[in-house]
Amino acid sequence: MNATAAKGETLIELVGVRKRYRFGEAAVNALDGVDLRVAKGSFVGVIGRSGSGKSTFLNVVGGLDRPSEGSVLVQGRALMGRTSDELAAYRRQVIGFIFQSFNLVPHLTALENVALPLALAGQGYFERRRRAQELLDKVGLGARTGHRPTELSGGERQRVAIARALSNDPQLLLADEPTGNLDSRTAEEIMGMLRALHAEGCTIVLVTHDRERAERYCERIVVLEDGRVKEDRTTSAALVDLSAASVEAAPPAEGA
Amino acid sequence: MRLSDVGAHAFANLARHKLRTALTLCGVGIGVATLTVMVSLGEGIKRLIEDQVDKAELVTRITVLPKGAAGQLPIFRRGGRGGQQDDDEAGPKLDDDVVEQLGKLPGVVVVYPDTHTPWLGAELDGRVLQAESEGLPAKAITANYQRALLAGRYWTEAESQAEVAVAPSRVLEDLGIKPEAAIGTRVYFMRIDQLGRYEMEPEELPAAPDAPGAEPRPLRVRYVRPPDARLIEVEIIGVYESEEFGLAGRRFQVPLTFGRRLLAESGLERALGGQASAGRYRALTVKVEGRTDVAPVRERIEQKGFDTFAIADALKFVAIVFAVIEVLLAFFGGIGLVVSFFGIANTMVMAVLERTREIGVFKALGARDRDVRRIFLAEAAAIGVTGGALGVLFGWGVGQGLNRVGSWVMREALNERLVELFYVPGWLAVACIGVSTVVAAVAGLYPAWRAARLDPVVALRME
Ligand SMILES: Nc1ncnc2c1ncn2[C@@H]1O[C@H](COP(=O)(O)OP(=O)(O)OP(=O)(O)O)[C@@H](O)[C@H]1O
Ligand SMILES: [Mg+2]
Q1: Which atom of ligand 1 is nearest to the CA of A57?
Q2: Over the stretch B57-116, which tens digit does the pLDDT of each residue have?
Q3: pTM to 2 decimals?
Q4: Ligand 1 atom closest to Cα of A227?
Q5: Which of B356, B285, B352, B307 is closest to B140 using CA atoms?
Q6: Across-strand partners of B165?
Q7: What is the phi/psi pair of residue A22, to 5°?
Q8: A39-65+82-239: CATH homologous superfamily?
Q9: Farthest CA pair distance, chain A
């Protein structure tokens, strides 16, 4: 499709994806014929106005939602026609979700939250806790494992959420406005962390309102408008050498 | 998701909402407690009756009758069939040979002829009364008999020819004689018609009227024995608690040989059937080792051409009656469970509403519908198990309390004994907890199904 797609093999492909919501006679197309490829190892920023269909796009890619039309292919295999159990397995094995409002389980500790996807996958108690501890160390919260979400700041919560999204070693990270609830300094930290994950080879699709930040961090920008792809281009960030980035020491970017 | 994790999650969620869980548990607990109390009342009464039957040794006893004689006294048969003699019984006769044969059957403890004499006159401590007698071989005196002994002793094997008696406590009580005081005294047995020949005389009429205010002294009556009375003098060597055996309370127990003689002397032998003194019996009593021996021994006896009767038959009926009573009690107790059903359903619907977003998160993280369903079902079942256990404990406590109160109120009649009217056997506790768990799980079905069906996208949009 474009230069970025050529960088690696295709991980996700959307072909003519529509998502229609009906209100009696009237209908809203949250997605209105989206064709898109996401290459393995890429860092895609999806931007657009509120209501343009960004979250719907992410949900469809993540197998949380089913398109009304068109198909989503994951490594060439369609999500369509899969049972809800198969979609759950897909989310469990392939996808890591990060949300704007963190969506941590309030009564579980940071460690338990991170271990939750592994528990759902049937992993044993000690094994999953060991893995969760590792991930919390990685996001710099190794000392806060016993804290509940309410005892953590917004930035810390989002770091826990990132650790949770990583727990199952996903092939694709889907982040829906992960910095939307954070001040700009903390937002930079989180973005730096995503960049570092990208540098480690993670494929990331990031939904954001913030065009400026997307330009700086993502290597490709997709603009949605009324459920259609309005614009799809690579950015200058695609040329930045990422070898120095690391998750532990995410460098605050210039704009902070 | 592993089931152990599902269970741990369920209990953690319950522990988190302490007040709500406590209130729901109260509801379930009271429901289960009601059920427990109701059924334990049925069980308790049944057990009291069974104990009574066991003590009376009735369940391990088989009565052997000549064929065709079951349930009928010859006195009635004769009237009905125009004066036929009792030789008209079809099968073999009950004689000492049969006693010996039956005694050799496996599982049989002892066989002895029925020498129960229902109508005898007796003179005791200067008063007269109607009495009964029963002859027993020393071998029939089991631990139950020994236990019921209030004073003195039973006869031994060596005394099988002795003319002694063990008196029922009830008769002595009526006469105002203490059991210990009766040992060594005499009782005089006679034909029942002799009682009418006794003359009554007031004893020592008061010489002067009672002093004012003093208790009027009861007028004592002396019975004057007719000079030509035919009496059989017997020494009382023991006293038994007649209530224990559930007998009428007038039955003197005597050695078998002597029992035969009393039956003959009563003049009732022919009326009752058989002729014990001539070695032909109207019935035999076969005592077996345990309840389970009753059926096989009966079968062997019937093969020999006799009719048999065992109280076990009647007990089957009692068991049916009690099953019906318990079902009724369980039905009323079960109403409490219906109430707790709705309580649990309500709690679970609330929990699903409240955790809608959490359900969305779980699904986004890869939980299957069935994982979500199991989480909520497990939560409902956990309420059921815990509430059931608490309810059983509470119901048991209430029953124990009522046992104590009841026994205290009735302490005079019960001789200070604790009577367990409410009794919770192990199976009842397990069944109550099981039923409570199943009821709770069923109450959780609909909420759990709703939770499992939630669209994750919609759930995640919830504020
Ligand atoms: N469950 C739904 N029922 C009806 N309409 C819906 C539903 N979900 C989304 N929509 C509509 O679909 C369109 C796209 O919604 P979506 O949430 O994808 O937008 P968005 O780009 O993520 O917006 P925002 O930036 O505010 O998060 C909107 O017009 C929304 O009203
Ligand atoms: Mg959105």
Answers
A1: 18
A2: 778 888 898 887 655 554 444 444 433 344 555 678 888 889 888 889 998 999 999 888
A3: 0.71
A4: 14
A5: B285
A6: B236
A7: -100, 140
A8: P-loop containing nucleotide triphosphate hydrolases (3.40.50.300)
A9: 55
